[in-house]
Amino acid sequence: xxxxxxxxxxxxxxxxxxxxxxxxxxxxxxxxxxxxxxxxxxxxxxxxxxxxxxxxxxxxxxxxxxxxxxxxxxxxxxxxxxxxxxxxxxxxxxxxxxxxxxxxxxxxxxxxxxxxxxxxxxxxxxxxxxxxxxxxxxxxxxxxxxxxxxxxxxxxxxxxxxxxxxxxxxxxxxxxxxxxxxxxxxxxxxxxxxxxxxxxxxxxxxxxxxxxxxxxxxxxxxxxxxxxxxxxxxxxxxxxxxxxxxxxxxxxxxxxxxxxxxxxxxxxxxxxxxxxxxxxxxxxxxxxxxxxxxxxxxxxxxxxxxxxxxxxxxxxxxxxxxxxxxxxxxxxxxxxxxxxxxxxxxxxxxxxxxxxxxxxxxxxxxxxxxxxxxxxxxxxxxxxxxxxxxxxxxxxxxxxxxxxxxxxxxxxxxxxxxxxxxxxxxxxxxxxxxxxxxxxxxxxxxxxxxxxxxxxxxxxxxxxxxxxxxxxxxxxxxxxxxxxxxxxxxxxxxxxxxxxxxxxxxxxxxxxxxxxxxxxxxxxxxxxxxxxxxxxxxxxxxxxxxxxxxxxxxxxxxxxxxxxxxxxxxxxxxxxxxxxxxxxxxxxxxxxxxxxxxxxxxxxxxxxxxxxxxxxxxxxxxxxxxxxxxxxxxxxxxxxxxxxxxxxxxxxxxxxxxxxxxxxxxxxxxxxxxxxxxxxxxxxxxxxxxxxxxxxxxxxxxxxxxxxxxxxxxxxxxxxxxxxxxxxxxxxxxxxxxxxxxxxxxx
Length: 747
Known about the structure:
The chain has 17 helices and 32 strands. A hairpin with a 5-residue loop joins strand 16 and strand 17 (189-196). The longest helix has 20 residues, at 417-436. It starts with 22 loop residues before the first strand and ends with a helix.
């Protein structure tokens, strides 16, 4: 990795997020400049940048990305360096000294040994360390693969296996554990091996597509035109066809390699990155980047091509900072920003899969980020935007905030109910999938059982409610705290291909910073997101979300639970909306329908809010139908809301009383009976159901207020017989005296 920076590229000095872009790099970069540096090397197995200088090698960890991280230095022997990598356990340094020899050095002791080619006719093209149980390191030679295991006792390598092939060049990524070996006159015939935790899996040989030129010349495929990427846990190979101006996409299965379409390119030089499972195709000459979400094998871009943005570059202070340095000081070690740091798509930029850019000549390393807010503001299709955001995991907090804000705004703007229902289906389905796979981090343990015969069709409610299918098996979910923090390894080539639900296929980094092992499983072949919304969705009126959501580090998934829908969408919207609440009721009913179809339990607060909205608009008949058909599930909260709303409608209050009795809330039922004046009936109910927690004074007060001495006498007699020791209580003495006065007055 070497070269000189070019001054022919545009220099930008944008700071903040005012520039129009969906992808950005953030200033400051990681500066890897060391005096006497002999180049930069990327060790993707350890996620480390290496810079040899004199008799030292300096290394910077790039995961997690921290521009201020200090390098670690190791002493190495002098000599040419073609490639350098640390072993995955960090104990050895492997240095390719020539096309025939690789030197190994123990980091602790400094002892060295070498391993070379047996034949002078073969050359070493490169090497990589592996966590395959059969071997520790693989030499890629023009004659094939040599697999070596390291013996810690003898401190030597011994040959485990040789795979004979004619190899022109190769590409390998530690993330996929996949190596592709190119052969043939045009270098378009490939043999692939995945060195997985179950052994070595050989892929079927396949040939890449290449268009012919007008002169019928046969172009030769170069290594820089082939990329191995992992997206949603699935491994793809992307190949640049410069003649056809296409980026061909191949997907790897255990038993086949299938070409899955092509993407147009608009530049003779193309680079590829992957950020949070979004494919970024850099049109280097055109200086723009195009985003694709190939979750459903879609070939449509997420949005229009836009430039790569540099954020945080202190353009205004760079000139003054430069003038403060003494003459003769090396620009490579200066800490001030310079114009080459603001050069977009420089000639010496090297794109490191998945999401890094190395400016080789300036010794700078940039990390690529998605601007979710900008992407969300580029489309008005709410459901597709939410679908895209629900698949984002790197910035789960921001994605969740955007989804909640968009849902609120769509309701406040009174978008068509069918459109809002579609958006709600996206959120509910995403929560269900996320919960099943363990990505959602809940706060409370609760069984999520859907009601069976809910959602009967109701006529005249102003909302279309469809009966849900109750013939399927009931599914229970549980909110279990801490599930989101567990290690969740999933094969890139899974047996069920379950990664296609958008919530699987994410792997947690292991101790050396690399992804968990991605295995070639018995995947079944299937054929597989355009997005976002207006900037108003993240306006100041949604600041409540930022202040009340869980702290950012605790949010591991953008999935939104029913509780969060109530707290951050329905309750705030109910406060802001004025006029006829029929629209909000229709939206909530659609939410309940969607939850029922996914067998997700809804907390009583949403049902209670629905009852409140219907009663507020005096739609008591419809409220009764909602209760009878169990669209509103029985609960104490709903019963209390019915009793409150029923102050102006006796039938609604009776529904509340009946619900308390149905739920066996005997104490509450007795209290409300007494408050309504049915204290004698309440006494009979107390005796039948053995209620002992109700205060006798409440009944005595009600009987005395009726001015009926017979009722007061009956209540006194009941409690005297029902509660031991009542005759000696102050209540008995007080009301017995009052009863005597009432009888004397009557006489």
